[in-house]
Automatic annotation (TrEMBL):
Signal peptide: 1-22
Record-annotated Solute-binding protein family 3/N-terminal domain positions: 41-266
Record's keyword terms, sorted: Signal, Transport
SMART domains reported in the protein's UniProt record: PBPb
Protein name: Glutamate ABC transporter substrate-binding protein
Family: Belongs to the bacterial solute-binding protein 3 family.
Length: 281
């Protein structure tokens, strides 16, 4: 076979074309999902240790309300569930994870505060939670002052129980444990009378199989916690898309379904879905 000669210019053009194709230069996405959607993966920060909100299951799957919300939002941004990479994002590292670009967004019981808004932008809120008490099903504790002379479980490093003691029940006896599971075991055995933190977190723990039907929320509103989805400061394009996705999730009923599936067993009396941009002080 007779071979034709190829000019140097043509050869160069061919190499450039092949290089551009190999790099996938026009797919619009990257590993953090920084494009307009439809990239290979999107990294989303969640908690791994909060049943009902963000939990890594023994089989490696993920469950919880935050997970359901983030999955819905990602779908609206152009990502299927198998394109989501869940990244454990601890409370103290949430702002840094966004600024470093480790994740595209964070849905991890992330309360919107003025201090945090100096560092990140928030879509939402998508849930209005409150500090509350978890007590036994037959408990007569119905208000914070009922905790006087009773034992209130606190997780080491948490300020929730101290706030109750300072503001409502100065004679409450604080008992510290290493984690919420330990507080729940103490509540189950009668070693303590109540556990306090955000009602959404309490509902998630109480809904676990080993605790179903044993506890109830007192239904107090000791604080307002507006949960938002954090994005990198200045990423208004992503922010707008997430807000539209959250509005759609509410309007099509998926939001209410996710609430009932994740918190229902604990008889969680949730607030109606909050309006986007409406922060309850």
């Amino acid at each position: 076979m007779k071979l034709r000669k190829v000019s140097a210019a043509a050869a160069t053009a061919l190499v450039l074309a092949l290089t551009a194709t190999a790099c996938g230069g026009d797919d619009g996405g990257d590993s953090n999902g920084s494009g307009s959607g439809g990239g290979d993966k999107i990294k989303i920060g969640i908690k791994y240790d909060q049943p009902g909100l963000g939990l890594k299951e023994p089989d490696g799957s993920f469950s919880g309300f935050d997970v359901d919300v983030a999955t819905y939002v990602a779908k609206e941004l152009g990502y299927e569930p198998n394109q989501i990479e869940w990244v454990e994002t601890k409370s103290a590292d949430r702002e840094n994870a966004l600024s470093r670009g480790d994740v595209k967004m964070i849905a991890a019981t992330y309360s919107i505060t003025d201090e945090r808004k100096q560092k990140v932008d928030f879509a939402g809120p998508y849930l209005l939670a409150h500090q509350d008490l978890l007590v036994k099903k037959d408990s007569d504790i119905s208000k914070a002052t009922d905790l006087n002379e009773k034992k209130l479980c606190s997780v080491a490093g948490s300020t929730s129980a101290q706030n109750v003691k300072d503001d409502f029940a100065p004679k409450a006896q604080l008992t510290q444990r290493g984690g919420y599971s330990e507080c729940l075991s103490a509540l189950q055995s009668g070693a303590v009378d109540a556990l306090t933190t955000d009602d959404s977190i309490l509902a998630g723990y109480a809904a676990q199989d080993q605790y179903k039907g044993q506890f109830k929320l007192a239904g107090l509103k000791l604080s307002n916690e507006n949960y938002g989805i954090g994005v990198k400061k200045g990423d208004t394009a992503t922010l707008d898309k997430i807000n539209k996705a959250l509005e759609k999730m509410v309007s099509d009923g998926a939001w209410e379904k996710a609430v009932q599936e994740n918190f229902g067993p604990a008889e969680y009396k949730n607030e109606p879905a909050p309006k986007i941009g409406q922060i309850v002080q």
